[in-house]
Amino acid sequence: MSAILDDLVFRPARVEDAARILAFWAEAAENEARPADDAATVETLVLRDATALDIAVQQDRVVGTLISGWDGWRAHLYRLAVHPELRGRGVAGELLRRAEDRLVRLGARRLDAMVLEQNGLGQSFWATAGFSPQHEWRRWVRSAE
Ligand SMILES: CC(C)(COP(=O)(O)OP(=O)(O)OC[C@H]1O[C@@H](n2cnc3c(N)ncnc32)[C@H](O)[C@@H]1OP(=O)(O)O)[C@@H](O)C(=O)NCCC(=O)NCCS
Q1: What is the 90 CA–ligand 1 centroid distance (Å)?
Q2: pTM score, whole prediction
Q3: Burial of 1 (C-beta count, 10 Å sphere; 0-12/13-18/19+)
Q4: Which residue has a Cα nearest atom 16 of ligand 1?
């Protein structure tokens, strides 16, 4: 196991972590093309599913996140990010290992991840983890407001 992993605490996020998570995402997450994050959004997620948002914490700072959404049918992985100073040392791999354990325990039979076409780093991570793109699908979206 990478030495850095011994130095981190991996745990589900709590409501009181929201501000630190938002600050971390502003610095480390990759996607600009999404609705703005705010504390209420994080709180809604954590109150709905107390184990959906896993974080890696070093002393007092959040250095990694992964959301594993499970609705009883599909398992979605998103908001994977690791602090730039700690990349390449297995932190994302450990976040995914924990999320996968949880999702399989809950009954998931397939996992999916949202990965931007231009995100080579993200694609490399997910490919190494055994994921592959589904070229026959595109994501269709519209605002819910
Ligand atoms: C993608 C990201 C989460 C990876 O986090 P990480 O903790 O550095 O990843 P890990 O150390 O667990 O690496 C696991 C595997 O990912 C791949 N990988 C990680 N960094 C890589 C790099 N710089 N170049 C190529 N492949 C890389 C490798 O296959 C690696 O396996 P290996 O160590 O056996 O070579 C991190 O780079 C990040 O936060 N990037 C910005 C946000 C982002 O793009 N998130 C992904 C959204 S889809």
Answers
A1: 8
A2: 0.96
A3: exposed
A4: 125
Where are the chain's structural domains? 3-128
Strand boundaries in 28-145, DSSP class E: 53-58, 61-70, 75-82, 111-113
Largest CA distance in the chain: 45
For residue range 57-102, list pLDDT tens digits in order: 999 999 999 999 999 999 999 999 999 999 999 999 999 999 999 9
Q: Tell which one of 95, 123, 125, 139 to mutate to probe ligand 1, the residue whose CB is within 8 A of the most ligand atoms.
A: 125
b/e 67-79 (16+ beta carbons within 10 angstroms → b): bbbbeeeebbbbb
Closest ligand 1 atom to Cα of 2 = 11
C-alpha to C-alpha distance for 7 and 114, rounded to whole angstroms: 29
The topology under which CATH files domain 3-128 is Aminopeptidase (3.40.630)
Which atom of ligand 1 lies closest to the CA of 93? 12
- Report pLDDT digits (tens) over 45-62: 999 999 999 999 999 999
- Quick one: tokens of 32? 């600009």
